[in-house]
Amino acid sequence: MQRPTFDDFREIRRGLPVxxxxxxxxxxxxxxxxxxxxxxxxxxxxxxxSLYAYPHLTGDFIEMARLNHYVGFYFPDPVLVEPNFxxxxxxxxxxxxxxxxxxxIGVSLLSVFVAVAPTTEKLKRGLKYQFGGTxxxxxxxxxxxQYRLWQAGHTLDPGAPVMGVxxxxxxxxxxxxxxxxxxxxxxxLGAYMAATAAGLLAVAYYYRDESATFDELPTRLxxxxxxxxxxxxxxxxxxxxTDDEEDAPHRPTTTAAEPDQPETHS
Length: 266
What we know:
The protein is an alpha+beta fold.
């Protein structure tokens, strides 16, 4: 079975999956999520905590855990591994957090596997399944994270010092307030690296039917941007013509009556 040569990886559809694989693995070294917290208990400082794709926190997570204790909201328990932060007894169990690296390394290995496909047909088929599978994996991950955030915010410790706090759902992105604690969530560098890797796979899939190389990419992008206004203008023109036809008043068509032929008598 013939394997692609080094020159074959100059093609966009082979080279970009390799770049995506490297980004997926490198993303594990950087935070996926940042949380900033302002509270009256810390009037002169803003607390910052970074979360990774595996059970690991950096920043002011000890101080933030103390704040969360007031309302009974705790960092989740990864169950399968020992995290670098203290786990409360009433914390929710999130064993899938420990499997985050498995997902990242899995899509990375699959990207490399697709890039070294021995034939063009297998490469094209692999790019389709690779891109679709990657989107599915990370969509499920984001949905699971949001669900776990909802679960943690709606299973507050009933023995918390501050009573009567309504259930809440921390967003993946945005600001929220609980009691006198204001938090802001943002994606971290690792999340942006993973999103960039998914974008590279999308570009590779777009060029799956062409043997275009990286040397040709700037020209193709420039031509595409140059032709974009014409394409948009043509599209708008077609839509306008259709609207004009639909808006035009209906004029019934009339057929002129044929003149009566004189009768002939034999």
